[in-house]
Design brief:
- The structure holds two protein chains of two kinds.
- Chain A is mostly helical.
- Chain A has a single domain, classed as MetI-like (MetI-like fold).
- Chain A is 73% helix and 0% strand.
- Chain A is built from 13 helices and no strands.
- In chain A, α2 packs across α13.
- The longest helix of chain A is centred in the C-terminal third of the chain and has 34 residues.
- The two termini of chain A are 42 Å apart.
- The mean pLDDT of chain A is 89.
- Chain B is mainly alpha-helical.
- Chain B has two domains: 79 residues, no CATH class; 214 residues, MetI-like (MetI-like fold, Orthogonal Bundle).
- Classes of the chains: A mainly alpha, B mainly alpha.
- Chains A and B meet through α1, α3, α4, α5 and α6 of A and α2, α3, α5, α6 and α7 of B.
- Chain A: It is a multi-pass membrane protein.
- Chain A: One of its GO terms (cellular component) is plasma membrane.
Chain lengths: 292, 315
């Protein structure tokens, strides 16, 4: 289409100014800050080379936090990838009132993490509902200190992350399920395939594109967990529920060591980038293997 | 064209009798004995019952924690909220915790702050993203691909890395404790530009061309021809952005220290500090704070869920 050379620039300008000022410029500055001793007290920083990175790699807490973040990925991501598939199958049935149930399952998604965190903090209380239910069923004999014990706090917070995310990923899978032609299931039924076999042999393979999207989305968001930790445990007890973003936040806005925190931020960036690339490559390979 | 559509229309027709044959049970004339007649329906009833039981069980898991919070908020001061086993139904339900917490908790200030921030963020995104998406979808210019790749690449950069320099920048610009400071960093998103570009790509070029022949300029084509046609995508983007802005916690936590500027999530979080262990008030305040979004969700739930589905397919 004919247009003056300046026309596309006029359209792009407002958005690009914002992306430039609040993403590209900060990105460059974050990398630069990570090589300085910038803090809120001394605002004219000196270039310190890789000192921040050296200090970071020598910090036992950093490795602990990184390990806990990876644990988050290893446990929360598979849960967020597989559990919502069954929820989606559950709410994909032609039943009266099914949209009501879909909305109910989506409710934790629209609720702010702060309220979700408070609600679960109350559920996790020593004399709370969760301990009571588990005791009634006979799974435990005495109350577990979910959020105040170093052995459970990380997993307790993780469970909340998963619980809040279920509805969102369920909806993504629901879109995927509705694109699967129903005559495939009809044919399988004639062949006498059980519901379970239908899920394994029809639903899961045809849902692969959605599974890929959910894997990438949930890994990236698992790398960035912050709010649930801030609201429920503040990283404690003894840093047992602290993850990388919480560590960055603490260093930058509690200790005010912006340069050092930026170095940790750069590590976060590299790890998330690696995960997206590995995820995409891995899923592509699998998809090709399934086709071939 | 006509042949194609004819083939498409004819295709399902021969399928219909096949589908009928595939399911002989549904045809009453095929069924031989009375036993076989009742069995499938019985099985269906059991299946349906099992489905509803599962649905309700999962529902309890998904709303249980909220209901327990509500039950606690409704318990009067004379009732022990730490009773064990827990009492799920309040003995004498009262609203006194709600009225009491509202005296300390400036709910309406927080609600107004949240609303202003969410509305401004949504408005800015709708405008800036669809402006930027237009040339990327419908014009040819040098560097177009580079611009597009640069925009998309911003999705890979975590905000948690950027928050430190953005904080310093916002301080230098005097944006601390201002609405502008809350809105600007999220005023344009790569996701929004991508979504709107996809929407513009689906509209036939003939529409622009005929409008151009009638003397419309590029801006008029964008505003008068294209924008009305991409309304569904605008709704999707609006809901996505609204959810992001409404629930945002980390950035307001960093950039606000003046309580009167707090958005709802920060306000609720401050309850935990102010009423350290008064769980009746914390619960009541939390319940009040989720009412607005639950009301909005109840009214617009169709768009919320359809929007998330569409966003997933496209994004």
């Amino acid at each position: 289409m004919k247009h003056r050379r300046i026309t596309p620039i006029m359209f792009l300008l407002p958005g690009c100014i914002i992306l430039g000022a609040f993403i590209f410029y900060p990105m460059i500055q974050a990398i630069w800050l990570s090589f300085t001793n910038y803090n809120m007290v001394q605002q004219n920083p000196d270039f310190v080379g890789v000192a921040n990175y050296k200090e970071l790699f020598a910090d036992a807490l950093f490795w602990k936090v990184l390990g806990q973040t990876l644990l988050y990925l290893i446990i929360a991501v598979p849960a967020l990838v597989f559990l919502p598939i069954f929820l989606a199958i559950l709410v994909n049935q032609q039943l009266k009132g099914i949209t009501f149930f879909r909305s109910i399952y989506y409710l934790p998604v629209v609720t702010s993490m702060v309220v979700v965190g408070i609600a679960w903090k109350w559920m996790y209380a020593d004399q709370g509902v969760l301990n009571y239910l588990l005791e009634t069923v006979g799974l435990i004999n005495e109350p577990i200190h979910w959020l105040t014990s170093t052995s459970t706090s990380l997993f307790a917070v993780m469970a909340v992350t998963v619980w809040k995310g279920l509805g969102y990923y369920m909806v993504i899978y629901l879109a995927g399920l509705q694109a699967i032609p129903s005559n495939l299931y009809e044919a399988a039924e004639i062949d006498g395939a059980s519901k379970w076999r239908q899920i394994i042999h029809i639903t899961i393979p045809l849902l692969m594109p959605s599974i890929m999207i959910v894997t990438i989305m949930s890994s990236i968001s698992a790398m960035k967990v912050f709010e649930e930790i801030y609201v429920m445990t503040q990283g404690g007890p003894l840093n047992s529920s602290m993850t990388l973003v919480y560590y960055i936040y603490n260093e930058a806005f509690e200790s005010l060591e912006m340069g050092f925190a930026s170095a940790a931020g750069v590590i976060l960036f590299i790890v998330t980038l690696m995960f997206s690339i590995v995820n995409i490559a891995f899923m592509n390979k699998r998809e090709q293997a399934m086709k071939g | 064209m006509e042949q194609n559509s004819g083939a498409l229309k004819q295709n399902p027709k021969p399928n219909v009798p096949i589908e009928d044959r595939q399911n002989p049970k549904s045809d009453p004339t095929v069924i031989k004995g009375p036993r076989k007649k009742t069995k499938p329906t019985q099985r269906k009833v059991i299946q349906k019952a099992a489905a509803y039981i599962t649905l309700i069980f999962v529902s309890l898991i998904m709303v249980g924690p909220f209901l327990w919070l509500l039950a606690t908020a409704l318990k009067s001061g004379s009732e022990n909220i730490f009773a064990y086993p827990p009492k799920f139904i309040p003995e004498s339900p009262t609203l006194s915790n709600f009225t009491a917490v509202l005296e300390y908790f400036p709910f309406f200030t927080y609600l107004m702050n949240s609303t202003i921030v969410a509305v401004l963020t949504v408005g800015a995104n709708l405008l800036f993203c669809s402006l930027a998406a237009y040339p990327l979808a419908r014009m040819n210019f040098r560097g177009k691909n580079i611009v597009f790749i640069l925009i998309i690449s911003t999705m890979m950069i975590p905000f948690q890395l950027l928050m430190i320099p953005i904080y310093i920048l916002a301080l230098n610009l005097g944006l601390q404790n201002t609405y502008l400071g809350l809105v600007l960093p999220h005023a344009t998103t790569a996701f929004g530009i991508f979504l709107m570009r996809q929407a513009f790509l689906t509209i036939p070029y003939e529409l622009d061309e005929s409008a151009r022949m009638d003397g419309a300029n590029a801006f008029q084509v964008w505003w008068k021809i294209l924008m009305p046609l991409v309304r569904p995508s605008l709704v999707t983007l609006a809901i996505f952005t609204f959810m992001m802005a409404w629930g945002d916690f980390l950035w307001p936590l960093i950039i606000l220290n003046d309580q009167s500027m707090y958005t709802l999530p920060l306000g609720v979080q401050s309850l935990q500090g102010n009423f350290s262990s008064n769980w009746r008030y914390i619960a009541a305040g939390s319940i009040i704070s989720v009412l607005p979004i639950i009301i909005v969700f109840a009214i617009l739930q169709r768009y919320f869920i359809a929007g998330a589905m569409k966003g997933a397919v496209k994004g």
